[in-house]
């Protein structure tokens, strides 16, 4: 947990509760997307990247982007 929240948030338990609820909502949205894709007979569900591919797969992704896990971070200089 970030130090800012620890030192500046008077109600950390409320923040944690809100974050938990947001994650639940996100989970429902992702699950609905997977169900809609299946219903529409779409052949692939592409979601997720190197940092969250396991979660994406758990929610039905058939394709994930993991380039930075293989090749490393991009150099934008």
TrEMBL record:
Keywords: Pyridoxal phosphate. PANTHER family: PROLINE SYNTHETASE CO-TRANSCRIBED BACTERIAL HOMOLOG PROTEIN (PTHR10146), PYRIDOXAL PHOSPHATE HOMEOSTASIS PROTEIN (PTHR10146:SF14). The keyword Transit peptide does not apply. This is Alanine racemase N-terminal domain-containing protein. The keyword Oxidoreductase does not apply. SUPFAM superfamilies: PLP-binding barrel. Gene3D superfamilies: Alanine racemase.
């Amino acid at each position: 947990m970030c130090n800012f929240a620890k030192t500046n948030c008077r109600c950390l338990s409320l923040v944690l509760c809100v974050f938990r609820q947001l994650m639940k909502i996100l989970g429902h949205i992702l699950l609905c997307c997977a169900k809609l894709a299946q219903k529409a007979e779409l052949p692939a569900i592409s979601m997720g990247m190197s940092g969250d591919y396991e979660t994406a797969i758990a929610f039905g992704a058939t394709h994930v982007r993991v380039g930075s896990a293989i090749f490393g971070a991009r150099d934008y200089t």
